[in-house]
Amino acid sequence: MSGPQLGEDEFRMWSEWLEDEYGLRFGPEKRTMLRTRLEPRRAALGVDSYEQLLFHLKFHPGRGDERERLLPHLTNNESYFCRELGSLEVIRDEILPALRRALRPGDKVRLLSAACSTGEEAYTLAILALEAGLRPSEVQVTGVDLDAVALERARAGRYGPHAFRGTGDAFRERWFTPVGEGWEVRPEVRALVAFAPANLAGPGWAGALAPQQVVLCRNVLIYFGEEAVARAARGLYDALAPGGYLFLGHAESLRHVPLPLHFERRPGALFYRREEG
Questions:
Q1: In this predicted model, what pLDDT tens digit does every residue of 188-212 receive, in sequence order?
Q2: Looking at domain 85-274, which CATH architecture does it have?
Q3: Can you tell me the distance from the alpha carbon of 60 to that of 64, in angstroms, rounded to the nearest whole number?
Q4: Which one, of 190, 216, 194, lies nearest residue 91 by Cα?
Q5: Which are the contacts of 32, defined by CB distance < 8 A and separation ≥ 6?
Q6: Which of 57, 106, 216, 259 is most buried, with most CB under 10 Å away?
């Protein structure tokens, strides 16, 4: 790749800023990867170094727009429908029926996809709720993500074949409509889902949400540094309603984060539960 090298001091400044600002950890072994991901925006802006690019992102009046352009290069937006099926089956077959039985008139079951990427997980949660017997008026799903481009794709609700690699044809035919060379989420599912921006490593994002009975934040914390994991875990805890359920990825743990969450296990699924009250 053409362009300047990412010097050691520049790499240190970038890695510190990305972890402080977004929780993203780029260790020394990812120096070349980071340069590869920064280079398209450096070239597009026409600045001579990665230090100048960082200065632009920190201080330029148009830094907000440029951050939105850069973030898709830095984050992993790999997602698909019905990912990690064991956890989803516990949600559909055990948790959602119990929440439905406990509903009071006018209440909703609220489910959150944290770091929702392009929306597959959020729409999956809406479909699970309908399959569990909840009425549309009883469900609200929210997807939040740092990446504004990914959120726009999520709101569009159109997906190609790769997004369905974890499902069978019956799932796709029941909940999606063919459009061109892909499929679009059916209106009765789209109506249950809203998307919003949020930085999980930042403060206060959970305060914009009503308490959530189920929160999924899977395969996200593995990209965070230790301090960012603690900040994100606090936000996830704050987002949970009393008695609410938190699902992380199978390789993720809050073992070293001091929060009053109870660890539970089912065949094929691990999750945490917030204390009642």
A1: 999 999 999 999 999 999 999 999 9
A2: 3-Layer(aba) Sandwich (3.40)
A3: 9
A4: 216
A5: 6
A6: 216
